[in-house]
Amino acid sequence: MDNITDYVRWVGGNDFKERPFSRVDNIVLCQLCYLDLRDITEIYEEGGEMTLRDCITSLTNLGVSIRKMAPDDSERFTQLVKVCANSRRFGNLYISSFMDILNEEDSIQFSAMTFSPYEGAKGWGFVAFRGTDSTIAGWKEDFMTSFTLTSSQTMAENYVRDRLETFDTLTVGGHSKGGNLAVYSVAVLPDELFERIEHVYSNDGPGFCHEVLTEDLIARVNPKATRIIPQFSIVGSVFAPKIDDSYVIKSDKQMASQHELCSWGIDHGDLLIASEGIDPLAARINSGIDKWIFSVNIDERRRFINAFFDSMAEDDTQTLEEFTAQGTKGWERILKVVLGDDRGLRIAAASLPDQMLFDGEGKKVAKTSLFRQFRRSDLAKGLAMIFAALVIFFIPEEFMFILVGGLLLTATVVSIVLTVQKVKKDNWNFQPHLVDATVSSALLAATVITFIKEGALFVMASGIFAALLFAYSYNSLARSKRTTNKTYSILLIFNAALWAVSGLYILFAPENTLRVYMIIVGILAIVDGLMRVIRAYNIRHRWYTK
Fold first, then answer.
1. What are phi and psi of 211, to 5 degrees?
2. For the chain, how many structural domains are there in total?
3. What is the value of pTM for the model shown?
4. CA-closest candidate to residue 229, choices 186, 261, 268, 270
5. Which residue range(s) make up the domain with 306?
6. Residue finishing a domain among 272, 288, 304
7. Cα(422)–Cα(429) distance, rounded to whole angstroms?
8. Residues 84 and 201 in one domain
9. Rounded CA gap, 522 and 388, in Å?
10. Are residues 500 and 393 in the same domain?
11. Segment 287-310, tens digit of pLDDT
12. For 503-543, how does the pLDDT look when each residue is reduced to its tens digit (9 = 90+)?
């Protein structure tokens, strides 16, 4: 599959008079916008400009390597920059008004530059907005677009206004967050400036929540806009704007890695269109994200995103690379904050997988009066735990296998039936429902293996029950942090440790110890249930305060 580097090799000998600007040129320039020019910023701070070829020469003379200001820096990007710099078409382009701003305290990351074939910032120019780099501040600002107007969007508008003071006309583009900035900066321009915008490109850039950009403004920019996304588009499909001139193109990378512009397919000097459209899994993820955003109010979104990224940035962590290097420690911080004492954050966090996997059905169940009463009643939970313990004591150990097998078989049948109904409703078109079909196939395979292969049912049951015990261990630990009664808190921590040990034990225990194990778990369930009943009794009689 050919890519934009191949494109530059083909057309590099033609300037923009000989071969007019195209949508592929837009992709090339939006990728070049990631070039790290911080070592030669003094040229631009003084209002100067320099051709791309001279920029690379200056960096080389300073002993600075070609770098991409993004997490996906690669040899591919370096090769593209070198090929562009050596070409007549791109190497002679003047780069002016380079800006690179990072303010971690205010969660601002903004970068832009202007390309033009004309010296002196006149005639026509291409404004390119960079997407998010590897800083946590940049990624936080990315997600802030789901609930508020960001500083970068305001900066982008001001940048375009400033460029129109010298250029006659502009084309504006960007990749990732840069695509969002490009559309926003053009949509809000006054009429006399808007008329001087030739076109705007959003390359896998997210859209806008209604609080930031209304449908009327999107409709205003629509005739001048082009939206390009890869098949597995995630970032560019959040709040996907209604732009008529939209394209889904192929990439030589897999899944989320398709976000990288260097991987996008080119065919005979134009976009390599993917006739299949969006990948079904990507569509499922995007649908879940959009539903989650609309199901959580703006204040909850704000608190969730602030808590998530602020916990990432603890211990002076500034970049995604630094966060990743911390291993599980970083993720523990996030879980502690997001799933901690703040009930609103816990609900927002739980809502995301519910929307992505179950279309929000879990939230509907949680809103029923019966479920709410059960969730709020320690007495009901305690009695339920005691009842479960008695069931564990008196049922034969084989029942665990029957229960797990029955649940697995039921889940498989339900999944297959629902998938068939969806496909039938869509005139037997499987393409939009590949994710559902894949899940059904996986469940069917797991069910067949579980019932046919010797010992597989025990392994499956052990894994499921271990997961439940670990979840209950975490629940007990979370409850210990929410109570102000020290004695009760200590008991809950001890209880959490016992549940965790039980979960570990069932993962490695031989099958002949199952009866003893069930008795131990039953005892733990009775203890937990009695603790809840006693707590409910004490609260009712005001013998201790929560």
1. -70, -20
2. 3
3. 0.70
4. 261
5. 296-367
6. 288
7. 9
8. yes
9. 8
10. yes
11. 777 777 777 777 777 777 777 777
12. 777 777 666 666 666 676 677 777 777 777 776 666 665 54
